[in-house]
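Design a sequence for this backbone.
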């Protein structure tokens, strides 16, 4: 898996597409939550659920179906005054879906694990992308602190950090041009 830092960074970059500065912190925090929450499935190890199980690590919680469900749920709970079928509701669902789905994209670009069940529950096969430049992050804080974690952070700075900064610069430029 990519680290929680990389997932959150990408989601915050995606959330900057919002034009409302008024609630940008809330929007960005929810976007980061959506991007990180799929890894809550590691708790299943404590219950004896194997990695490759439907509910195991990188299983259903890493799927596009889960991303859509979470996008709808976050919009419904945190934006109660916004009808889901409205333009704003659909935009919020899409952004939260995109942030959650970005988790699977990054994990499918890592150098380890069993792959990602992107199409679960319809297809529980695990997939990687053919191009896998991101160093896989160890599971657990203890294992992350040390040389392995440093290698992961260096890899993520190159493959997630730089593109995120470039994306933010592009969004900023487009917003500035639209204001003129």
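Sequence:
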């Amino acid at each position: 898996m990519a680290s929680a830092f990389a997932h959150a960074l990408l989601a915050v970059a995606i959330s900057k597409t919002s034009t409302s500065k008024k609630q940008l912190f809330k929007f960005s925090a929810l976007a980061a939550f959506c991007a990180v929450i799929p890894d809550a499935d590691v708790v299943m190890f404590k219950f004896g659920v194997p990695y490759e199980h439907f509910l195991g690590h990188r299983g259903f919680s890493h799927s596009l179906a889960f991303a859509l469900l979470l996008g709808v749920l976050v919009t419904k709970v945190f934006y109660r005054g916004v009808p889901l079928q409205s333009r704003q509701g659909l935009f919020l669902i899409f952004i939260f879906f995109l942030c959650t789905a970005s988790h699977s994209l990054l994990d499918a670009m890592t150098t380890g694990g069993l792959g990602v069940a992107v199409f679960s529950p319809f297809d529980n096969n695990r997939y990687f992308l053919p191009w896998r430049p991101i160093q896989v992050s160890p599971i657990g804080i203890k294992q992350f602190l040390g040389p392995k974690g440093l290698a992961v952070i260096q890899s993520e700075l190159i493959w997630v950090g730089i593109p995120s900064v470039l994306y933010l610069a592009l969004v900023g430029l487009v917003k500035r041009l639209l204001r003129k």
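The chain has a mean pLDDT of 90.
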